[in-house]
Amino acid sequence: MTAPLLTINDMSIIFTSPDEPDIEAVRQVDLTLTPGKTLALVGESGCGKSVTARAVLRLLDRNADIRTGEILFEGEGGKVDIARLKPDSDAMRAIRGAQVSMIFQEPMSSLSPVHTIGDQIDEIIILHERLTPRQARERTIALLDQVGVPGARERANAYPFELSGGLRQRAMIAMALACTPKLLIADEPTTALDVTTQAQILDLLRQLQDDYGMAMLFITHDLGVVAEIADEIAVMYLGDVVEQGDVFDVFRAPRHPYTQALMNSVPRLQRKAERERLSPIKGNVPSPKDRPQGCAFTSRCPFAFEPCADTRPARTSLPGDHVARCHLLTRTRAEAMA
Amino acid sequence: MSTLLTVENLSKVYTLGGGLFGPARELVALNDVGFTLEAGETLAIVGESGCGKTTLGRCIIKAQPVTHGHVYYHPKDQAKVELTALGKRDIKPWRRDIRMIFQDPMSSLNPNMRVFDIVAEPLRIHRVARGKELEERVLDTLAKVGIAPDAVGRYPHAFSGGQRQRIGIARALVLDPRLVIADEAVSALDVSIQAQVLNLLDDLKSEFGLTYIFISHDLGVVNYIADRVLVMYLGHVVENAPTEMLFERPRHPYTEMLLEALPIADPTRRKGRSKELKGEIPYLGNRPRGCPFHTRCKYAQDICRSEKPALRSINGSAQMAACHFAETLDLKGAYESSIGGGDRPLPLEGRAGEGVVL
């Protein structure tokens, strides 16, 4: 087994506000990223998946505080704890965009509309690798070519609005790869795209991962995309990672009631005769300030019993490479009720 | 079953430019679209962005004027009416029977109106009810979609995305329509909420005897909800078939491509797909000659580049496709080959108590 590239241990992120109580957006999260592997972070809006990813790059808003935990990164200059770096320090800047880079959901709003894509990619290369503009441009063209932008030399002079959604996303991927990162964070990179374009981009990411051997943290709400691209999966609900493990294990036998419910909410491709009515999760995701002390899923869980609301279930190891947080995994209902 | 709606040779052309900046150009958003809709069925319209699916929905209720063609509506006890021939004033009564639900529940509800007034507005505009009766109908409809009566005085911002979509549905249903056009009605919702709304639409359909036109790009959802599917590409209908036939064995290469691209929530069915998919949807302004799909089609022959195939029934079945080789191509469907399907996750109870606390 390869050594981990990034290890997040017991990380909690708290949002403060002058006139409201603090909100713990991410609670004691543990994640491990390995070179050449993809970890998918899954959950519904507001579950803290983007916050977790942005914490790795220290791109959080000012009122967010990584209160506890560590983010250990095996960087070029040895092991660093990203959680202890200042967001605007030189050390962090050397990591961000070079060793760890990110692609975003909406390429139109995350690329500069007034610079050509070539100039935007050149800038990163010049900044991190100190090449001359001419050398940087050659590298940019090679990158654009590699991510499948046809006519890369001419397209480098195009502005984002001149490109289709798929090409824009490819340009953004080229930008993220400009300094051959060790870790690529992809935040819903295909959500805004058509299915056929999505399939092409997923293929591209898979192929680039093979070529570069980078680790990938892939954020999505689409279980179909997870099944397609991930090696490991971590399911988040209201700031908790409720279940994580090998993607085949988790899809075959999800152990947390939330993961099970999520999987039952997706219509399956079945013939009419076999079709079952969807069984949605009842109710809505509560607001973070109404989250119970114990398991965050208590209010919507069909199996909830006495300890759930008050005692937070511990991380429980299951057979195989599989971890979940649920009281039912450590005791039976009869035991708990006694 | 009786016919509810007939669409014949519908075309919509937008004219671009034509001023200081050079000659006008034509953009054909809908090209000779035709289909019939039976009462009680759910017809899904699918395709990539820019294929004309939304334009088609809007042309049916004449939210946009059409360039050529006819849309006939068949009212319950009357002769059919041609919606496309009616003026603004004359079409209004029929808009009570045909209602729309929009994609983004955030921007389709007026933020300055209370939920009660949002749902009451169609009743007031069409002068269907007033006073006590109006109040009853509004509260009744809201209750049916699951909005509590004590919440009706609030503004849309106080509701979650799923609840807002329910309000949009209530607004469509309050006039007791026969046909509901849902344009990407569940696309903006989280999966667990999406499942709730899909079930709600299903329940309301049987309760009110509705017919749906369900515009969507999500083929998983379409397979779940639709009886029949209309696949559109660059403004053309390329396939029109009962859902199961289409997913079992598509007859148009574009349909196959869409099914191929669909991610399936099962890692054991993962497949390398790179070679199957190529290209992007061409810009509508420079549409290819011949078959609109030939630039991306891996089966394309010379005839495809010169001659446009007609939409026709395949071997006399209910499945229609517009491909020169529809009868002979053996295209791949989306269902698992063996009947029986995958196993659902087991309930948790039986396996309790097996874990070890870390």
From TrEMBL, chain A:
Molecular function GO labels = ATP binding; ATP hydrolysis activity
Q: Which residues form the ABC transporter domain?
A: 8-263
Q: Which GO terms describe its biological process?
A: peptide transport; transmembrane transport
Q: Does the keyword ATP-binding apply?
A: yes
Where, subcellularly, is it found? Cell inner membrane
Which keywords accompany this UniProt record? ATP-binding, Cell membrane, Membrane, Nucleotide-binding, Transport
Q: Which Pfam families match?
A: ABC_tran (PF00005), oligo_HPY (PF08352)
What is the predominant subcellular site recorded for this chain?
membrane
Q: Which InterPro entries match?
A: AAA+_ATPase (IPR003593), ABC_Ni/Peptide_Import (IPR050388), ABC_transporter-like_ATP-bd (IPR003439), Oligopep_ABC_C (IPR013563), P-loop_NTPase (IPR027417)
Q: Spell out the GO cellular component terms annotated for this protein, sorted alphabetically and separated by semicolons.
A: plasma membrane
Write down the membrane topology: Peripheral membrane protein
Q: Which family does it belong to?
A: Belongs to the ABC transporter superfamily.
Put simply, this protein is called: Dipeptide/oligopeptide/nickel ABC transporter ATP-binding protein
Organism, as annotated: Devosia elaeis
Which lineage is the organism of this entry classified under, starting from the top rank?
Bacteria, Pseudomonadati, Pseudomonadota, Alphaproteobacteria, Hyphomicrobiales
